[in-house]
# Entry
Amino acid sequence: MNRRISTLVTLALAGILLLAACAPAAPATVALTATPAAASPATKAAPTPVTLSLGYIPSVQFTPFYVAIKNGYFADENIEVKLENGIETDFLKLLGTNERQFVVASGEQAILGRSQGLPVTYVARWYRRFPVVVFSQAARNIKTPQDLIGKTVGIPGLFGASFVAWKALVDAANLPEDKITLKSIGFTQAAAVDQGLVDAALDYEVNGPVQLRLANKDANVIPVNDYRQIPANGLLTNEATIAAHPELVTSMVRAFLRGVRYTLDHPDEAFKISLEFVPEAAKDEATNRAVFDASLALWQPDPGQPLGVSDGAIWSQTADFMARTGLINQPVDTSAIWTNRFVEAASAP
# Structure
């Protein structure tokens, strides 16, 4: 039975205030010729302040952004970035009303936002594949979607990327939902699976399965992306920012992609930088390093493709599936939801 998802949505960014300042005129001097004295060059404009909205809590999973700040990539673009963490639905609303200008979210959130009239646009791809999986203890012998029939599956709630992933798996694998118990367990997936409170659970592949294996428990994983491709995490902005400040969008994309590239090329140094921004992660460095290492595979670009580029076909297929399963209440034209324009501009020499 289809369930209509409630308003989801993500992040975005604090208002843009462009401050231009000019140096005072140079003191007058006595000229020996009729040539007037040249005016002194204008001072560099003050940095543009930007609040970048990330996920629920600070995490090593946001390392490329920490790297971009630490290594001065945003500063090179004359942008002063402040990071904030919070609830995706709140951030998406703020993005849609231009109370924020940039947000990190997954692609299906952009489709949900557009279906609700929010003019949000996905401008740079980050994850190469949708990261949500169904995982279980290997002893449960759950290896395919059909093995879930008659089982209890844990989910944080009927919202967010996990719920979209569940509906995608049910639709793609033609699963009978009335023969599977979906249980809301909050963000306790690894513990719930480990303690046998559920047979399996939905989580990011770099979270629950990694924690289970670190506890010396073998895990089976069913990647949703193997059955239905969904646009994954990336950088979003809104139409107002694109129209008024396209150069700022290009600059944000360029700094972000430099952070991703450095993280992939220098993982040890990048991880150390992340601990400066998330000091509590150092209290369990082994677990957080395992999560970080697993994340690196998600951040690699597709073979032969540059960082940040989106595949338009995935967007239309996802919107069709979401309309068919009741996740959105009307068809959505995806042509304005995503663009490679700013990735291409950021990569230009």
